[in-house]
Amino acid sequence: MEVIICASEGEVATMAAARIAEALSRRPDPVMGLATGSSPLGTYAKLKERVDSGKLDLTRARFFALDEYIGLPPSDPNSYAETIRTTFTEPLGVNPAQVRVPDGMAADIDAACDAYEAAIRDAGGIDAQILGIGSNGHIGFNEPGSSFASRTRPKTLTATTRADNARFFGEGRVPTHCVTQGLGTIMDAGRLVLTATGAKKAAAVAAAVEGPVTAMCPASILQFHRYATVVVDEAAASKLQLHEYYRDTFDMLPEGYRPH
Q: What is the pTM of this model?
């Protein structure tokens, strides 16, 4: 696992975008996994800069969202379909037909999940997946206790996750269920890039990076991925025991291995 500790949120976004762009540039029709929440917004902005400057071509790319709430129509302002439209698809000038989000309104959720998995396989797999991390260590909506072999499926949200997301919905209105790519699905991606900023994420980051690999911290499975990069600011890195080692490792990288 590569750990990059940055001085600011802006640097986190720059480094994450560089790793993602590197992975996407290896195919003329790359596939990217999209996350929602506040963590990836800076990264999306930096990817937009690359698109606008001609350094990154997404005209033939395909995109798959990590998750969606069950029971929210795509037009709902709090749905992840709408969030991705406003934070990624429109700002980067991506054709909406290139973006797929799990169907949280499907009459047969299980069949819709199977179809989503098939669509990812048919696209050739995800080349670069951006991830955030929840305060309880979840990635996507894979809550503690999730199977490491899990595929796209419905899940019940924990009280912790509902509390974290309540600011978007108001008291008592947070959905209780979701559809999410599974940990097995996420681990199939060629490159994983997890970003986190702020002291509230420090304990989860430390557990994911340095703790035991356990279903109680779903993000810890990234320790088993060949090309997983964790990009954090100083606050989110504050509980890492090997903080200085990670910094030294990155500082001494040969030039060709540095994000740019």
A: 0.93
